Amino acid sequence: MEVDEEEARAKMKTILKTFPIELELKYDEKFTKLLNILNDNRYHSPEYSESDEEQPDGKRQINVYNPSWRSEEVR
Known about the structure:
Blueprint: H1 5-39, E1 49-51, E2 62-64
Antiparallel strand pairs: 1-2
């Protein structure tokens, strides 16, 4: 079984040219999902967080729970 070296190189060039584009598309898709999570209030529902009234020392304690329905992207 003889392999044509020029043909193999041409095929590899095509693969390598498209590879960065595929990675960029995957990155853009993931980045867009993360931005949507940050901008969408449903992921950060105020019903699942509590805050203390202001303390005499001026500090506040905020407790945020990890609900089971929370997206894996923000854990």
